[in-house]
Structure formats: structure tokens, C-alpha cells
Amino acid sequence: MLNKVTLKQKIQLPRIDECLERLHNAKHFTSLDLTNGFHQQRLSEADSIKTAISTRYGQFCWKVVPFGLSNSGPAFQKMMNSVLADYIDKFVMVYLDDILIFSTGDEEQHKEHVRLVLKKLDEAKLIINKKKCRFNRKELTFLGFNISADGIKPAPEKVKAVLSWPAPTNVQQVRQFIGLAQHYRRFISGFAGIAAPLTNLTQGSGPKRRAISWTEDCQKSFELIKKKLATAPVLATPDMEKPFRIECDASDFAIGAVLLQEENGIWKPLAFESKKLSQAERNYPAQERELLSILHALRTWRCFVEE
Q1: pTM value?
Q2: Taking CA 155 as the corner, what is the angle to CA 152 and CA 158, rounded to the nearest 5 degrees?
Q3: Of 36, 105, 142, 223, which residue is most buried, by most CB within 10 angstroms?
Q4: Distance between CA 292 and CA 248 in Å, rounded?
Q5: pLDDT exceeding 90 applies to what percent of the chain?
């Protein structure tokens, strides 16, 4: 009921892909995790009363921000953006209670960056969970990705979760699998086309747990996504001082592209992008589908190719 009458805060969470793209030339990494992050925000007395519940033991209300309120996430992100405003996008990234400190210089520079961030958190009376923090690493996991000076790749534990996923038996399970796999679609060339037999199963109305017709094409799609993720390439991070190259392709039912950048004479992938064609788009001549793939790629990576 409280969420229904709450005015939603329009604080947008950072896009994970944009966070990862800022790591070019970073060599040292530290990740910080706040202890029960939401609970470190105090509620005003006026707002605290609104969370009251009545029990046989009396009336209770929250003094800190609880999980589940519609504005819990946006309010927390706003607070963290304010606390670390001087350093965000310079050597810090913040996604809710996950903080990444990255440095392109030597170890001493990184130690100074960590000291500055810890000082800001201390001034704001925010407490970190020491057991979940990782200090001065050459490689670590952040938001489900392994990051290092070599680039970005899916976190092994996430890949393991996908590989061990059983074949879905209803629409809800298909959506859950696709949702997890899509988190890593930037690593898979032609993901939209590969996943088409599965995404087709989710179309239409009806109960979430309605049964599905699991065909041979569905099984092939399911297994190929797993295989592609298990062999996903390490993606380089973009250098805005160097030129980019985009390669596009189109099939009868999907379009795809890859963003590349040259390093030591080798064109390395930065990201893959793909899109399933609508019924009308499938009727386009081959040349127009190719042009559509170029247009889609330019729109997707406009920030890299626009002067």
C-alpha cells in the first residue's frame, strides 16, 4: 500500500555497460561493499511513521530505510552519488552499495585513491563490510563481471550457473534463463538470432507458468547459448583516443554487429550487439536488412563513432 502512494524518485541507476567502458588502462582494482547498505540511511520522523505496523506486541516503525520500499534503491544511489561526487567517473564507480575503485597508475596512486574514498565514507558515517571487500587486486569480480588490465569477461560463477541450468519446462523458467543470459549478451555474437527460438516461447498472454512446447530448435538454442558463454572472448575496453571499427551482418530473422578497436595490430572486440527482426523487417530485401544492421549499430554505439 505504501509503495502505491509513494512519489517515485527519478534517480537512474548507472548502466552497467557504461561503467565497464570506463576501465580502459586500469591496472589496480579495489571493491568495497557497504554493510546492510539501505539500513545505513536514516528515515525522518515524518517518514518513519508511514512505515508503522501494528502487532499484538505493539506498534513498530522503521528508523532506517528498509528493503522493499519503491524509493529505497534510488534514494541510496542518490546518497552515494553525493558522498563520492568528487571521484565518480574519475577513479570510482558506484552501483548501489557496490563501489569500485580503479587506477591507471602505480600501486601508490591506487592506495591514495582508496584512502580518499574511505575518508569520504567515514565522513558520511558509512560502514563497509570488510569480509566482502577486495583491496588492490589485479583482477576482481564487479557486478557479475571479471575485470582486469586485459579486459572484461563473465564471472566464472555466473557462467557456471548458466551451464548448470536445466532445460525449462514453462514460460517463467524460459524468461529466467534468458534474463540471466542477456546480462552477458555483449559477449555473444548474434545473441538475438541464437536466442530467437527461446524468446518466441515467451510471446503471447497467459499464466507465467504455462507449459511450453520444447522443440529441437529450442534445445539447440539453449545449448548454443551455454557453449557461446563458456567460450566467451575477453572484451577490451574502449580507448577514446583511437579509431573504432564496426562490422555488421544480417540474416533472414536477425541483425548483428561488433564494435572493434585496434591494439598492437590486432582488432579486438569491445562489444557485440544483435536484434531480432520484426515480421515486417523480415520482408525487407537483403540489402535493406544490411542497411538496417548498420543503422542499429550506429545508434547503439553513437557515443563512440560520433565526433
Answers
A1: 0.87
A2: 140
A3: 142
A4: 9
A5: 75
